């Protein structure tokens, strides 16, 4: 049997009942489309988060308390008090970490802030003036508090643009008083709208002296993180090693597996984000692929119905010289064409919807979302859809090829 004739016959067979054909391949279309959407969204989300991490700078390091989290149970380690003034002083000692340029503590206090009758949600960050130097974040009005203000536990604050807008409307808020956990702070600086920089949403942030945050807001004497930077990117690994050695000596830790701290760099954070997003994307894709199984069962069901409806056609073709192999190939090719068409439609719809979503996020939500077409997922999706056609079309095709021509011709 000529291949062109087989394709033509299979095409006529699959398009004979157009509505049934569309409904049959719907499961394949939805499955492939879902996989493309998930893969594209996963790549876009990963790029968005990595872009934020890159905003930290390649020289920046974060030292956080507790061992590096390996699971949900490890996150309680963040509540430990292994980072205090003595750790900060030790790390700032040049003979301990000679290639550390500067370092500042972090005290994070999520919650509400108010001014008069207005209240809004914000994240208060207790830190020093080095916060702006390390992350290159400076207010467009006012300035950071001085070292003297930090030592005096001054009640001063810099606020993000969204916080300003919610509390003071069109006013710049300079010199106004805001209340955080019952304590009054004077606004001495306002940031312009900046969005996310690194892992910090500047627009919803309030920056206060870390000494003031500890004394009036948390009542603690430890830090939730220490942020510093190396003198150069080339010396970052050396700084990480020196910081680790200094803290182990200070805490009398000989076994590194028992560290009560962990260090995050841009490279570490990037690798962690890639691992998390890749696992989530793979998990969601595997769930979406279940619809391919449903689609395959639909293909098998339709092909069995088609074989039953075309019994006399099969008998006539066999009587005219078609072999069982010819019949098997024709019905298998029909099933393969059905799923392949469904796969192509699914890839096209998935790519189109993904693009529209990325366009909407960029234009209307002001998210720097990068559209990514997952080529590998599209190729694998088409191969899988073809495989589904062969796998679920084989049984109906074998049933058709085994029919006796005499019985088939007598079939009513």
Topology (elements, then pairings):
Elements: H1 3-14, H2 18-54, E1 60-65, H3 85-92, E2 100-115, E3 118-127, H4 130-135, E4 141-142, H5 147-151, E5 156-159, H6 161-168, E6 177-180, E7 183-190, E8 196-197, E9 200-201, E10 205-209, H7 210-218, E11 225-230, H8 236-251, E12 261-265, H9 266-288, H10 290-309, H11 311-319, H12 324-364, H13 375-401, H14 405-410
Parallel strand pairs: 3-10, 5-7
Antiparallel strand pairs: 1-11, 1-12, 2-3, 2-6, 2-11, 4-7, 5-10, 6-7, 8-9
Helix pairs in contact: 1-12, 2-9, 2-10, 2-12, 2-13, 10-12, 10-13, 12-13
Overview of this structure, please?
The chain is α+β, with helices and mostly antiparallel strands and 412 residues long. The chain folds into two domains: 184 residues, no CATH class; 179 residues, no CATH class. Helix content is 55%, strand content 17%. It has 14 helices and twelve strands. Helix 1 crosses helix 12 and helix 2 crosses helix 12. The longest helix is centred in the C-terminal third of the chain and has 41 residues. It is elongated. 37% of the residues are buried.
